[in-house]
Amino acid sequence: MTISLERYSGRHPRLADSAVAAALFGFALLGAALSAPGAEQPHRMLPSALLSGVACLALLWHRRHPRTVVVVALGCAMAASALGYLLNPLLLAPAMAAMHWLAALTDRRTARVFLAGAVVTTTVITVIADPGDHPLILRTLGPAFWMLLPVASGSAARLRQAYWEAVQARANYAERSREEEARLRVTEERMRIARELHDVVAHHMALANAQAGTAKHLSRSHPEQAEKILGTLADTTASALRELKATVGLLRQAGDADTPLEPAPGLARLPELTAACGTAGIKVAVVTEGTVRPLSPGVDLTAFRIVQEALTNVTKHAAAAAVQVRLAYSHDRLTITVTDDGAATASAGPAPGHGFGLIGMRERAQSVGGDLQAGHRPGGGFEVMTALPLHPHATRSEEDPRS
């Protein structure tokens, strides 16, 4: 019920203020009719009605001019007391309401200053113009309490409003933070899937193109070798379709069981990768140094994709006949070096502004806490070197092993 009244008063403030002012006017008239036992009561009610009307009319502007309204309402009450009317809480009702709104709408210092002034004024008037023979303690503590009560309630209302505003601000901030985090996660997931698609499509298509070119070159002079390469070409395209289906399967709807979940590729599939490059006319040698150690799924996938992309760049951009892949294991890191013997003018990386191979490899290495360097060798060829932690403890966005 209280919440409904607050909502209604918030939608219709002028009407609500008028209703409150009318009710306070009635209270003030009732308070003017009261008198202390044995005290002489003024015979005419017109002065009190006029003063109460002015005070209640001033209350309609309490939202814009709370200080002025307090002065007017309190002055009317003091004038009524000076005319012989008993200064009681009912007669002070408009002034008390004005003090409440002052404390609710202004700062704490303003409320304290006006409270001190109101207490002093009401106490002095009560002591001087009290129509009854009341004890001095009642004539001093009574007005002080009547002024303190609305200031306390107004301050509580101001604090409550500030609390709800702070709660609302925190809720809005939390909502914006959740939306920003969701957008960031969507962006990271989109970039991850884009890297997967690039690696899968670029590698297999470059390999298929090289195999097709080799088969065409050997079709007349060595038809049996060309036929063998064409058979390998079919296997290459089939492998591309399988990996592409597994990657795009991440976007399937929930509950779709048609897309199988295959294990993520890793360094265990390196022989298969080097054999495919061999059919394209590039001899790949794999050298392992140190004790082979198990890798986490994310690092294993990252290592395989970096080697795959490096070999793809050799196939597409370098005039190389041989490539060496060196895997160096230490106690906490795996260093991968892919070196080709291409001409010094050839580049295993795309021209500036074209392609995302080197960018994707560097992002993959950084995602698991590693780094990557790539560039031309002084004696010719191109080299890609990356150092990956064997078991990263804190990574920014480790790859999903299901991809």
Automatic annotation (TrEMBL):
The Histidine kinase domain, residue ranges: 305-392
EC numbers for this chain: 2.7.13.3
Keywords on record: ATP-binding, Kinase, Membrane, Nucleotide-binding, Phosphoprotein, Transferase, Transmembrane, Transmembrane helix, Two-component regulatory system
GO CC annotation, single: membrane
Molecular function terms, GO-annotated: ATP binding; phosphorelay sensor kinase activity; protein dimerization activity
SUPFAM superfamilies per record: ATPase domain of HSP90 chaperone/DNA topoisomerase II/histidine kinase (SSF55874)
Record field: catalytic activity: ATP + protein L-histidine = ADP + protein N-phospho-L-histidine
Annotated InterPro entries: DUF7134, HATPase_C_sf, HATPase_dom, His_kinase_dom, Sensor_HK_TwoCompSys, Sig_transdc_His_kin_sub3_dim/P
Superkingdom as given in the UniProt entry: Bacteria
Transmembrane intervals: 69-91, 111-129
Name this polypeptide is given: histidine kinase
Organism per entry: Streptomyces sp. R21
